[in-house]
Task: inverse folding
């Protein structure tokens, strides 16, 4: 028995980066995992094949988080394949850093659709399949609470909205013994934010531990929140950023 034996998880944005690390960790902990991607079919298929070969139960589904119909259908497909959904992890995300006057309204709406609308849609869609003991976990950002530099207005706005979504859903779903939590990473080495990127040294200079986190660091936190041990934690914003925000 491992901590997530007999559990079923649905992870958005699991083909790369933090989401892929979460998929690997949840499978290692014994969960069956369905995950989505939008454009990286080869990476998604390779990850699913690798984990299946190791004995995991894994399903990769193409579903654009900005498309509520596609996301809802993917959740239905996962529930049909695995019987129920105990854990929802909203990890799909995009970055679009630029001066605020250069953002189009279309870009604003797209980021809000992926970061805010999708977790709301996914929460509604999983509920019919989620028993007591369920876990809803969203990957936010430390930029929701402290914005240390320019050109992140849109991103920070969308991640800050998740604080309200998390607390509201925690109140709504607590009586059903479903917890809802937000995990807020800081700089984490991925395609979105590489540790050798142009702003990496600037970020490291603001951290108590002056190095980028790894996807596996965030995944370990997710695994604990997904486990039975976290049963009394809900509505929490849990920051994992090497002390950048302190
Ligand atoms: N890296 C950091 O420093 C950092 C810090 C704080 C928070 N975060 C948050 O952590 C999460 C993961 O970020 P990351 O750094 O791992 O990013 P990443 O390496 O760029 O990976 C993004 C993942 O999200 C998927 N995705 C993007 N748009 C999607 C859409 N419309 N529908 C479905 N899937 C979509 C991608 O799928 P495809 O492969 O198909 O494109 C990919 O699997 C995001 O929510 C991000 O905001 C990251």
Result:
């Amino acid at each position: 028995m491992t901590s997530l034996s007999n559990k079923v998880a649905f992870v958005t944005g699991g083909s790369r980066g933090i989401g892929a690390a979460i998929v690997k960790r949840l499978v290692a902990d014994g969960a069956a995992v369905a995950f989505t991607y939008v454009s990286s079919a080869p990476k998604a298929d390779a990850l699913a094949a690798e984990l299946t070969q190791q004995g995991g139960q894994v399903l990769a589904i193409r579903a654009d988080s900005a498309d509520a119909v596609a996301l809802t259908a993917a959740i239905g497909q996962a529930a049909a394949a695995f019987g129920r959904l105990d854990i929802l992890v909203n990890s799909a995300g995009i970055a679009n850093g630029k001066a605020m006057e250069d953002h189009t309204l279309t870009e604003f709406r797209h980021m809000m659709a992926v970061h805010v609308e999708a977790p709301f849609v996914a929460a509604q869609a999983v509920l019919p399949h989620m028993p007591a003991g369920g876990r809803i976990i969203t990957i936010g950002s430390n930029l929701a609470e402290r914005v240390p530099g320019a050109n992140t207005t849109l991103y920070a706005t969308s991640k800050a909205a998740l604080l309200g979504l998390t607390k509201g859903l925690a109140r709504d779903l607590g009586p059903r013994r479903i917890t809802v939590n937000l995990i807020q990473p800081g700089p984490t080495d991925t395609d979105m934010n590489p540790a050798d990127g142009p702003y990496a040294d600037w970020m490291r200079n603001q951290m108590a531990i002056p190095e980028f986190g790894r996807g596996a660091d965030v995944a370990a936190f997710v695994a604990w929140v997904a486990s039975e041990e976290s049963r009394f934690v809900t509505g929490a914003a849990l920051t994992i950023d090497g002390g950048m925000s302190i």
